[in-house]
Amino acid sequence: MYTNDGYVRRYSESFKPKVLVELTKGNHSKRQITLTYGVRSSAMNEWIKKYNRKDLMNTRLTVQTDDELSRIKALQKELKQLKDLLIKKDLEKLVNDSSLAVAAQDLGYKDVEN
Predict the structure, then answer these.
(1) How many independent structural domains does the chain possess?
(2) Closest CA to 8 of 35, 33, 40
(3) Is the entire prediction scored with pTM above 0.85?
(4) Does residue 64 lie in a domain region?
Protein backbone atom coordinates (compact mmCIF):
# COMPACT_ATOMS: atom_id res chain seq x y z
CA MET A 1 0.00 0.00 0.00
CA TYR A 2 1.20 3.51 -0.73
CA THR A 3 2.49 5.36 2.26
CA ASN A 4 3.73 8.89 2.43
CA ASP A 5 7.37 8.11 3.07
CA GLY A 6 8.66 11.48 1.88
CA TYR A 7 9.59 10.28 -1.59
CA VAL A 8 8.11 11.70 -4.75
CA ARG A 9 7.42 8.82 -7.08
CA ARG A 10 7.75 9.38 -10.77
CA TYR A 11 7.19 6.70 -13.33
CA SER A 12 8.71 6.62 -16.78
CA GLU A 13 6.56 6.90 -19.88
CA SER A 14 7.55 3.37 -20.89
CA PHE A 15 6.57 1.94 -17.50
CA LYS A 16 3.00 3.24 -17.52
CA PRO A 17 1.78 1.41 -20.66
CA LYS A 18 3.48 -1.79 -19.49
CA VAL A 19 1.45 -1.69 -16.28
CA LEU A 20 -1.73 -1.06 -18.28
CA VAL A 21 -0.93 -3.98 -20.58
CA GLU A 22 -0.53 -6.20 -17.54
CA LEU A 23 -3.91 -5.01 -16.28
CA THR A 24 -5.41 -5.69 -19.72
CA LYS A 25 -4.26 -9.30 -19.67
CA GLY A 26 -6.49 -9.85 -16.67
CA ASN A 27 -4.06 -12.00 -14.72
CA HIS A 28 -4.02 -9.51 -11.87
CA SER A 29 -6.57 -7.11 -10.47
CA LYS A 30 -5.93 -3.38 -10.28
CA ARG A 31 -5.41 -3.73 -6.54
CA GLN A 32 -2.82 -6.48 -6.96
CA ILE A 33 -0.91 -4.41 -9.50
CA THR A 34 -0.94 -1.32 -7.28
CA LEU A 35 0.43 -3.38 -4.40
CA THR A 36 3.06 -5.08 -6.55
CA TYR A 37 4.45 -1.89 -8.11
CA GLY A 38 3.68 0.54 -5.31
CA VAL A 39 1.51 2.65 -7.58
CA ARG A 40 -1.46 4.51 -6.21
CA SER A 41 -4.79 3.54 -7.77
CA SER A 42 -5.49 7.21 -8.49
CA ALA A 43 -2.25 7.35 -10.52
CA MET A 44 -3.34 4.27 -12.47
CA ASN A 45 -6.70 5.91 -13.15
CA GLU A 46 -4.86 8.96 -14.50
CA TRP A 47 -2.79 6.71 -16.78
CA ILE A 48 -5.94 4.98 -18.00
CA LYS A 49 -7.42 8.36 -18.92
CA LYS A 50 -4.16 9.60 -20.41
CA TYR A 51 -3.78 6.58 -22.69
CA ASN A 52 -7.52 6.51 -23.46
CA ARG A 53 -8.05 3.02 -22.00
CA LYS A 54 -11.56 3.51 -20.67
CA ASP A 55 -12.11 -0.24 -21.01
CA LEU A 56 -9.90 -0.63 -17.92
CA MET A 57 -11.89 1.75 -15.72
CA ASN A 58 -14.11 0.32 -13.05
CA THR A 59 -17.61 -0.14 -14.35
CA ARG A 60 -20.80 -0.82 -12.48
CA LEU A 61 -23.06 -3.53 -13.77
CA THR A 62 -26.65 -3.90 -12.71
CA VAL A 63 -28.03 -7.39 -13.06
CA GLN A 64 -31.79 -7.59 -12.98
CA THR A 65 -34.12 -10.54 -13.30
CA ASP A 66 -37.24 -10.51 -15.43
CA ASP A 67 -39.33 -10.26 -12.26
CA GLU A 68 -37.46 -7.15 -11.18
CA LEU A 69 -37.82 -5.57 -14.62
CA SER A 70 -41.55 -6.25 -14.72
CA ARG A 71 -41.92 -4.88 -11.18
CA ILE A 72 -40.03 -1.70 -12.16
CA LYS A 73 -42.21 -1.24 -15.22
CA ALA A 74 -45.37 -1.74 -13.12
CA LEU A 75 -44.16 0.81 -10.57
CA GLN A 76 -43.31 3.30 -13.31
CA LYS A 77 -46.78 2.85 -14.79
CA GLU A 78 -48.38 3.33 -11.38
CA LEU A 79 -46.28 6.45 -10.78
CA LYS A 80 -47.42 7.92 -14.11
CA GLN A 81 -51.06 7.18 -13.25
CA LEU A 82 -50.70 8.84 -9.85
CA LYS A 83 -49.07 11.91 -11.38
CA ASP A 84 -51.88 12.16 -13.93
CA LEU A 85 -54.47 11.83 -11.15
CA LEU A 86 -52.78 14.54 -9.13
CA ILE A 87 -52.74 16.89 -12.11
CA LYS A 88 -56.42 16.15 -12.74
CA LYS A 89 -57.33 16.88 -9.10
CA ASP A 90 -55.32 20.13 -9.13
CA LEU A 91 -57.09 21.25 -12.30
CA GLU A 92 -60.50 20.37 -10.83
CA LYS A 93 -59.73 22.40 -7.69
CA LEU A 94 -58.60 25.34 -9.79
CA VAL A 95 -61.78 25.21 -11.89
CA ASN A 96 -63.99 24.91 -8.78
CA ASP A 97 -62.26 27.84 -7.07
CA SER A 98 -62.60 29.97 -10.19
CA SER A 99 -66.26 29.04 -10.62
CA LEU A 100 -66.97 29.85 -6.99
CA ALA A 101 -65.24 33.22 -7.31
CA VAL A 102 -67.27 34.08 -10.44
CA ALA A 103 -70.53 32.98 -8.75
CA ALA A 104 -69.75 35.07 -5.66
CA GLN A 105 -69.00 38.09 -7.84
CA ASP A 106 -72.27 37.62 -9.79
CA LEU A 107 -74.22 37.51 -6.53
CA GLY A 108 -72.61 40.75 -5.40
CA TYR A 109 -70.25 39.43 -2.74
CA LYS A 110 -66.76 40.93 -2.39
CA ASP A 111 -65.10 37.56 -2.00
CA VAL A 112 -65.96 33.88 -1.69
CA GLU A 113 -65.90 33.86 2.13
CA ASN A 114 -68.85 36.27 2.35
Answers:
(1) 2
(2) 40
(3) no
(4) no
For residue 77, the SS3 value is helix
Q: Please tell me the distance from the alpha carbon of residue 90 to that of residue 113, in angstroms, as a whole number.
A: 21
Sign of the alpha-carbon torsion through 22, 28, 31, 33: negative
Q: Report if residue 40 sits inside a domain.
A: yes
What pLDDT is recorded for position 85?
97
pLDDT at 64: 79
**CA end-to-end span of the chain:** 78
**Backbone conformation region of residue 52, classed left if phi is above 0, alpha if psi is from -120 to 50, else beta:** left
The reply to whether 63 falls in a domain is no
* Span 23-82, pLDDT tens digits: 888 888 888 888 888 888 888 889 888 888 877 877 666 777 888 889 999 999 999 999
Q: Are residues 19 and 51 in the same domain?
A: yes
| Structural domain for 90, as ranges | 79-114
Q: Which of 66, 74, 72, 12 is nearest to 43 (CA)?
A: 12
